[in-house]
Design a protein that fits this description.
The longest helix has 20 residues. It contains ten helices and eleven strands. The strands form three sheets. A five-stranded mixed β-sheet has the order 3-4-2-1-11. It has two domains: 113 residues, NADH Oxidase (3-Layer(aba) Sandwich), CATH 3.40.109.10; 169 residues, NADH Oxidase (3-Layer(aba) Sandwich), CATH 3.40.109.10. The chain is α+β, with helices and mostly antiparallel strands. InterPro entries: Nitroreductase-like, Nitroreductase/BluB.
């Protein structure tokens, strides 16, 4: 494969979502092989001290690359953790041979450009059960499980742990400093979370049964108050998105990569069906709340990702997060 073709594939891979849009990856390419490495310099030592979420992010990028290659007519073999002597080397993608791209291959590749994290409220529409079954099956192909949080006691427990974790994080000056360092006010920023993509109000004041991460808590005045409430107005409709928990039976770097690949596939299939998503990972950031989530929900395995999913509001603007240029993350192809 020529360098220009690898540039297109890596360009698709780097559109993968990543924790705080840190884009913690770098690539090298030869004629028939693409290698992905984690970039330790883009870590989140406070939020993600084990690197779990960083590795999951790289797993999503692996799957986006596989999808782009399939749409371009290439069958790919993926080897995870190929080099026992190099912990940063997370995956090798080898070109096996040409194939005829299917309609699904092209559909998923097109979804890469259309997928965006949506933190705003969704429409009050349930996701089709048939779609959730399909997403569950796709996740299972990577050894990951996909569990909609539907029982009231599960929802109450999960919401409580998210709120508790958010409270713990907001009380940690080191967390707030790290969060602030990845918040971007420049629309041309190539990484980080753009402030335009973050709902401006206090998430705790939002009429929803799920609390999204408060990215601007470090800049909001403590005594900030919302608009005056009309006492005669009817109560606002509470947003109840579909929330799904994804996890794996094990909890090592291989499992994290597989969880990322499953997440990438789920997000692209959801996008092609008109569904948007955003993460609710606060309860998974902290070992204590993550362990409690396993216990409270009687999970067999380890939770890796919590997603809120739904139909985005029609006409709502989407603030796309920036991406680093491909030439910053892809080393020139060589035969050596």
């Amino acid at each position: 494969m020529e360098q220009q073709e690898w540039t297109q594939v890596v360009g698709a891979a780097t559109k993968a979502p990543s924790i705080h849009n840190t884009q913690p990856w770098r690539f090298t390419a030869t004629a028939d092989q693409l290698d992905l490495y984690v970039d330790p310099g883009r870590a989140l030592p406070v939020l993600d001290p084990t690197g779990r979420q960083q590795v999951i992010s790289c797993g999503v990028a692996v799957e986006f690359a596989v999808v782009a290659l399939a749409a371009a007519g290439w069958l790919t073999e993926v080897e995870l953790l190929p080099d026992a002597g190099d912990g940063d080397h997370l995956a090798t993608l080898r070109l096996i041979g040409p194939i005829e791209a299917t309609a699904l291959d092209r559909e998923l590749a097109a979804a890469i450009d259309h997928r965006h994290t949506v933190r705003d409220p969704f429409q009050p529409r349930d996701l089709p059960a048939q779609l959730l079954d399909r997403l569950q099956a796709e996740a299972g192909a990577f050894g990951a499980w996909f569990k909609p949080v539907t029982r009231s006691e599960e929802e109450v427990a999960t919401v409580f742990l998210i709120d508790r974790a958010e409270e713990m994080e907001q009380g940690d000056p080191a967390y707030l400093a790290e969060l602030q360092s990845w918040l971007r006010t420049d629309p041309a920023a190539v990484d980080g979370v753009p402030v335009e993509a973050v709902p401006s109000g206090d998430p705790h004041q939002r009429p929803s049964n799920w609390t999204i991460r408060d990215f601007v808590v470090g800049t909001r005045p403590h005594a900030a108050s919302g608009p005056a409430h009309d006492p005669d107005a009817p109560p606002p409709e509470v947003e109840r998105p579909t929330v799904v928990l994804m996890g794996t039976d094990g909890d090592d770097r291989y499992d994290w990569l597989q969880a990322g690949r499953a997440l990438g596939r789920v997000l692209l299939l959801a996008t092609s069906a008109g569904i948007a998503a955003s993460s609710l990972t606060q309860a998974l950031d902290w070992p204590a709340t993550r362990a409690r989530l396993r216990t409270r929900l009687s999970l067999v395995g380890y939770p890796q990702m919590l997603l809120r999913m739904g139909y985005p509001q029609e006409g709502a603007p989407v603030a796309a997060s920036g991406r680093r240029p491909v030439d910053e993350v892809l080393a020139p192809a060589s035969d050596g």
